[in-house]
Write a structure and sequence with these properties.
2 domains; 12 strands; four-stranded antiparallel beta sheet; globular; Rossmann fold; alpha/beta; single chain
Length: about 260
């Protein structure tokens, strides 16, 4: 495989169990540089677990994750898998940005402080350098006027935009979003999706677990449908919404998401 075809991130034959429950069952998914992949499916289908496995927050029980061809967590060795050191794994994980459904901001830090923290503690920047980076990325998400306020003083949508800026500031190679609008009031959802749509236009490599089918239809290059821990079908939005190949995908769309078919004409 030449460098041009190496995926930004590869999930190969991944399994994950919680006690007797198999949450991920032989899942394989390649995401290319600059691609936006939205992951949809019913609750409990393994979508969020897939992101946690990709980011090595919850290492898989089987299979492998590769970041630009580099295996995360292990090295291939003649005698079998060789675990990487904790420092190596931290370095690998720092290349992946994660935005959670819970806002996860530090309430005792200002908006700028929340974005600066990782830059100082992980990247080793000075506070002056980190604040410049924070200003840059908060401006990207429309919050250049909120640097010195605290999370409790801004809306939930603004807080989630701070979380996106915090992830962007670390300059990750891929961004993972775990249902970033699910904890927001309906009127605040659009402001977060607008930021994510702009990132998609800029060809930011993203994997997005979402229930927002309009966003998936408009921003995704491909949509992955999951059910019962398995990757059932992966296709471009126009194909998946109009002519899904699998009956289970069709059932899911017909029951829950029929109204979004109109977006594609």
């Amino acid at each position: 495989m030449n460098e041009a075809t190496i995926p930004a991130i590869r999930t190969a034959n991944v399994t994950k169990r919680f006690d007797a429950l198999r949450v991920l069952d032989d899942v394989s998914l390649d995401v290319q540089e600059g691609e936006v992949v939205c992951v949809i499916g019913p609750s409990g289908s393994g979508k969020s677990t897939l992101l946690r496995v990709m980011s090595w927050l919850s290492p898989p029980d089987g299979g492998r994750i590769e970041l630009r061809g580099e295996r995360i967590g292990f090295r291939d060795a003649p005698g079998g898998d060789q675990p990487r050191s904790s420092a190596e794994v931290r370095r690998q994980r720092s290349r992946i940005g994660m935005v959670f459904q819970s806002l996860n901001l530090w309430p005792h830090m200002t908006v700028a402080g929340n974005v600066m923290e990782g830059l100082v503690s992980v990247r080793g920047m000075t506070k002056i350098e980190a604040r410049e980076q924070a200003q840059k990325h908060l401006s990207r998400v429309g919050l250049s006027d909120k640097l010195d306020v605290f999370p409790a003083q801004i809306s939930g949508g603004q807080q989630q935009r701070v979380a996106i800026a915090r992830a962007l500031a670390m300059e990750p190679e891929i961004l993972l979003f775990d249902e970033p609008t699910s904890s927001l009031d309906p009127e605040l959802v659009d402001e977060v999706l607008e930021v994510m749509t702009e990132l998609a236009r800029q060809r930011t490599t993203m994997v997005v677990v979402t229930h927002e089918m309009s966003f998936a239809a408009q921003a995704a290059d491909r949509i992955a449908f999951m059910d019962q821990g398995r990757l059932v079908e992966v296709a471009p939005p126009a194909v998946l919404f109009r002519e899904p190949a699998e009956d289970r995908t069709r059932q899911f769309l017909e029951r829950a998401l029929t109204r979004y078919r109109l977006l594609l004409g």
